[in-house]
Specification:
Elements (H helix, E strand, L loop, with lengths): L4 E6 L7 H13 L3 E4 L1 H7 L6 H7 L2 E6 L1 H11 L13 E5 L9 E2 L3 H12 L8 H7 L2 H7 L1
Parallel strand pairs: 1-2, 1-3, 3-4, 4-5
Length: about 150
């Protein structure tokens, strides 16, 4: 699958994250990945956004920009949006903009390098070799959540 649209959710109550988001957005756009941002995050930083449900439906994968709490919240909220008839969950990855980021796939300063390394492999970003996308995208976490 070629990733064309990423849906972003930002760390709540952190309007100072705007410049980081705009920089990351430029990086994604340079690899022909369009960005959607959920309404709550958009309002916080003063940009146009879309309803969370519509964002999930229109995105190929979701991105959490924040800490582990933001990532876990996105995974939980994303649970009901499947990507195919096998009911696999939409891939989610985390970009750590917090302090520790145990669950995040990449730090802010690693985003461009991750995109570059994946772009070179296929001349388009078909998969992002990120832990959470591998784990969640294959539905393995779904089985754990259902228990």
């Amino acid at each position: 699958m070629k990733y064309k649209v990423a849906g972003f959710v930002l760390k709540p109550n952190a309007p100072e994250i705007k410049s980081i988001f705009l920089d990351i957005k430029k990086k994604f756009n340079s690899f022909n990945i369009d960005i959607l941002i959920d309404d709550n995050s958009a309002k916080m930083i003063g940009v146009a956004g879309v309803d969370f449900e519509k964002m999930c439906q229109r995105s190929d994968f979701l991105v959490s920009l924040g800490g582990d709490g933001t990532l876990l919240s996105l995974v939980r909220r994303n649970y009901k949006y499947s990507i195919n008839s096998a009911q696999e969950l939409k891939p989610v990855c985390g970009i750590n903009a917090g302090n520790l980021g145990f669950l995040a796939d990449a730090r802010i300063n690693e985003v461009e390098e991750v995109l570059k390394s994946n772009y070179k492999k296929s001349r388009s970003v078909r998969s992002l070799d990120l832990r959470m996308m591998d784990i969640i995208g294959k539905g393995s976490i779904q089985k754990k959540v259902e228990r």
